[in-house]
Amino acid sequence: MQIPHKIAFLNGQFAPLAELKISVMDRGFLFGDGVYEMIPVYQRVAFRLDEHLARLANNLAQVRIENPYSMSTWREHIQALIHAQTFVDQSIYLQVSRGPAYPRQHAFPLEAMPTVLMFADELEPPPAQAVECGVSAITCNDVRWQRCNIKAISLLANVLAKQEAVDAGVAEAVFLRDGDLTEGAASNIFIVKDGVIYTPAPSNLMLTGITYDVILELAQQHDLPVTLTPVTEQMLRDADELWLTSSSKEVLAIVNLDGQAVGNGQVGPIYKIMYGLYQNFKMTVMHRGQE
């Protein structure tokens, strides 16, 4: 495996990504015992950095890992990482594990120093074809644990669902649990029916993304009707429009679900409005130079 030559961050030090090493006894490696964040960066401006760091702090508290840095120190390290790259649009991956400990045992070690890893990849916008014509998706049974609201690095169920989508030649797998929509394998899901936007309210069964929050804010600011409510499988399949949202995909229309057209099988009018609002909002953030 050839690791690209780019500068990354490990436990307070910047170095080429290919040179970084962690202990084989790290609990992130042995147990998936840690949390992560994905932060989009446009023109070297981190998008909603404070919100990402607030979610990180909350997730660390939920799993009882001490936050290794203050908010200001996180910001300094992330800005330094951003400016160490040769490319301007980036996706920052940030991971904090409970750290290395011996012997291997499930209970928390008495002493452990969290492992902090960050690296940047080039952030490629969704292809124009996907934006203009939409993408396809499948549904699958949501068999994950009951704390999906924690952005944990133990993502095996999501990995398997995403691979189902890849095997089916589609963009996403949409989770259904007990007859209701939860989210996508790597996204949040919105539907539109009769001009109203619907999406599940935040709960322990889903991870609400920063993009999810932005979509709700934009809908409210621009008088687009939006309702947070349980979305049944029947509502999902009867929707006029279906969207996925994430930091990397932004907002994309799903026009085919399980081989059946969503609505008329074309990108819908509410999606086109929301896509434009999101792009305008993103440009405003970039031009202000603020997160």
Folded structure, characterized:
The structure is a single chain. With 291 residues, the chain is α+β, with helices and mostly antiparallel strands. It is 31% helix and 28% strand. The strands form two sheets. Strands 7, 8, 9, 10, 11, 12, 13, 14 and 15 form a nine-stranded mixed beta sheet that branches. A hairpin with a 2-residue loop joins β14 and β15 (260-261). The protein is globular and about 55 Å long. The model has no long low-confidence stretch (mean pLDDT 95).
Strand and helix layout:
Blueprint (H helix, E strand, L loop, with lengths): L6 E4 L2 E4 L10 H5 L2 E9 L2 E2 L2 H15 L7 H13 L6 E8 L17 E8 L5 H6 L1 E7 L14 H13 L3 E6 L2 E5 L3 E6 L2 E4 L10 H12 L4 E3 L4 H6 L2 E6 L3 E8 L2 E2 L7 H20 L3
Parallel strand pairs: 7-8, 7-14, 11-12
Antiparallel strand pairs: 1-2, 1-6, 3-4, 3-5, 5-6, 8-9, 10-11, 10-13, 13-14, 14-15
What descriptive keywords fit this protein?
291 residues, alpha+beta, globular, single chain
The helix/strand class is alpha+beta
Low-confidence stretches: none
Percentage of β-strand residues: 25-35%
Topology pattern, helix = H, strand = E: EEHEEHHEEHEHEEEEHEHEEEH
Count every helix, treating DSSP H or I runs of 4 or more residues as helices.
8
On the 0 to 100 scale, the average pLDDT is 95
Tell me roughly what share of residues is in helical segments. 25-40%
Brief sketch in words of this structure:
With 291 residues, the chain is an alpha+beta fold.
